[in-house]
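To illustrate the input format used throughout this study, we show a single complete record. The first block contains the structure-token representation of the backbone; no residue identities are included at this stage. The design step must infer an amino acid for every position from geometry alone.
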């Protein structure tokens, strides 16, 4: 309610008419959508895990901080783990997995990702999204094999930072096809995202929200994005994403009061469905 639904107002406004916005607005909207879909999907997965735990069922973790991944393979080991596990067990392994020659292994990877795109919907946007991730994974596996043969070092801060930047750039660009309502809409978004194709000025206020505007709007944006490090800290310290109170009264009251304050102050209360409900 506080992060995903608030950011969706910006994303919906910009992506609906991309030609009316500056290229930087489109870049920001793409990054916001990456945050939106994670907080939306991970959030309701956590609620499902918590509701099941109340009834005595232990469900698997569905996300493990995927936006900290330093390569595309690592990203898919952290994102939508339940679906990835299902495709691994019922498609990838029956095809032979990685226990085949390298070319067949690459084909298996490509096929799994294309079918995962088709699983999301019989539309070109989803199929292209799956094909892009197939391509990214093929490139990574080919590079990984080459690096092993050449004994190229793949560690250290600069290596991980570069890997993270490339991975997140690929993931965010692929999200454009996932979010676009049609292939034509995706083409238009990419076209106007290029700086030399943008002829309109940067807009501080977008659509019906002043999330990137002045005063309370700017303050609310900082609060929303400031919630992310706290959320990641909770996820890292408390597996499986379930925060248990330690019995210290004032600490518990303070945490709950802050949560309620954020929801009341910055939450979106109009009816919105979770993104993945359509699947």
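Output of the design step:
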């Amino acid at each position: 309610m506080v992060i995903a639904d608030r950011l969706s107002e910006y994303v919906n406004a910009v992506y609906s008419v991309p030609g009316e916005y500056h290229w930087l607005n489109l870049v920001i909207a793409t990054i916001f959508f990456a945050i939106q879909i994670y907080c939306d999907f991970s959030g309701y997965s956590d609620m499902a895990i918590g509701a099941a735990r109340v009834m005595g069922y232990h469900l698997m973790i569905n996300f493990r901080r995927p936006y900290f991944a330093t390569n595309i393979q690592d990203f898919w080991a952290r994102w939508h783990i339940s679906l990835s596990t299902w495709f691994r067990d019922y498609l990838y392994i029956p095809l032979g997995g990685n226990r085949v020659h390298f070319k067949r292994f690459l084909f298996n990877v490509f096929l799994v990702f294309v079918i995962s795109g088709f699983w999301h919907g019989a539309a070109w946007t989803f199929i292209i999204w799956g094909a892009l991730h197939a391509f990214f994974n093929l490139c990574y596996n080919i590079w990984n094999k080459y690096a092993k043969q050449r004994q190229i070092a793949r560690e250290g801060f600069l290596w991980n930072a570069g890997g993270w930047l490339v991975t997140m750039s690929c993931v965010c660009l692929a999200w454009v096809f996932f979010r676009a309502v049609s292939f034509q809409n995706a083409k238009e978004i990419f076209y106007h995202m290029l700086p030399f194709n943008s002829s309109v000025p940067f807009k501080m206020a977008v659509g019906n929200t002043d999330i990137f505007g002045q005063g309370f709007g700017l303050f609310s944006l900082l609060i929303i994005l400031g919630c992310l490090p706290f959320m990641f800290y909770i996820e890292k310290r408390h597996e499986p994403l379930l925060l248990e109170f330690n019995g210290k009264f004032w600490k518990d009251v303070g945490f709950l009061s802050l949560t309620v304050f954020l929801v009341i102050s910055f939450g979106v209360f109009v009816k919105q469905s979770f993104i993945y409900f359509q699947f």
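Structural context for interpreting the output: The chain is about 65% helix and 0% strand. The two ends are 20 Å apart (CA to CA).
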